[in-house]
Amino acid sequence: MKDCKIVQDLLPNYVENLTTKETNQFIENHLENCKDCKAMLENMKGKLPTQEREKKEVNYMKKFHKKLNILKGIIIIILIVFIAVIARRTVIMVSLANKAEEIRRSDNYYAKLHSYQGDTLTVTESYHNGEDYLTTMNWFSTQDGNRKLIFYQNGEEKIFLSEINGEKHELNPEQIQGMEVKPITYVLEDFWSNLQCAFVVGIKSTYCNGRECYLLVGDGYERYIDKETGLVIRSIEKSTDDAKRETDFIVDYEYQFNQVTEEDMVRPNI
Ligand SMILES: [Zn+2]
Fold first, then answer.
1. Which domains does the chain have, with CATH numbers?
2. Cα 27 to middle of ligand 1, angstroms
3. Is the pTM of this model over 0.90?
4. Which of 88, 96, 136, 173 is the most exposed place for a label (fewest CB within 10 A)?
5. In angstroms, what is the span from residue 25 Cα to ligand 1's centroid?
6. pLDDT tens digit sequence for 243-267
7. 58: CA distance to ligand 1 center in Å?
C-alpha cells in the first residue's frame, strides 16, 4: 500500500501527540484497514513506558548530581573555613612566641602576681637585676592565717626567710635556687607545636586588665595574653569536678621592664 510509507513515517509523531486532527484522522482510517501499520503502532506504544522510565532515571541522576555538587560545595567551604581558622590561630601563636622570645631575654624586670583560689590570696613581688633578685610571697588565708616567704640573692649573699603569722624563721638559703619569678609567656618553640596546638586551642580577641589581649582557651585552662608583648596577663586553671580543686585558680600578672635598680634590692632583716 502506498499510504503505509507515509503512515509509518508519521507514527512516531502520532504516538507523541504531535500530529494534527486531520492527520490523526488519516492515520486512524488507514490503521483500521492495515494490520502491518497497526502492529507497528502497538510496537511503538509498547516501547513508550521504557523511554519514559529512562527519561525519569536521567532526570533523577541529574538531580542527584546537582545535590551531590551542592554537598561537595558545602564540604569545600567548611574545609576552607576550618583551614582559615587553624591558619589564623597558628599565625597568632607564632607571632606571640616571637614577641615573648624578646621578653624572655630581659634580665631587668619587676613582676607582681596576684593568685586567687578559694579563700586564699597570694601576692608575689619579684625584683630582678642581672643574676640578683628579691622575691616576696605573701599568703593571706581566712582559714590558715598569713604566711610569707622571702628569697634574696645579691651577688654571693643568699637569704631565705619564712614568716608565719609574724614569726620569722631563717631557712637554708641553698634551697632558694631557682626561686626567681620569670616572666610568664605562652610560648611553643617551633612552628609544628603551634600548628598542633591550633587544633585544640580556641583564640579570640578581648581585653584583660586594660590591655588588648588574645584569650586562649584550652582543655581546663584560659590564658589572656598581651597582644603587644606576648606576656600572660591572666591565667585561669578551671576547677575540675573531683573534689581536689573546688574553685578556679586565677593568677593576674603585672610587669615592668628595665626599671629595677640596686635600691629595690632591699636586704631582708633577719
Ligand atoms: Zn499500512
1. 2-59 (no CATH), 102-264 (2.50.20)
2. 9
3. no
4. 88
5. 14
6. 555 688 899 999 999 999 888 888 8
7. 35
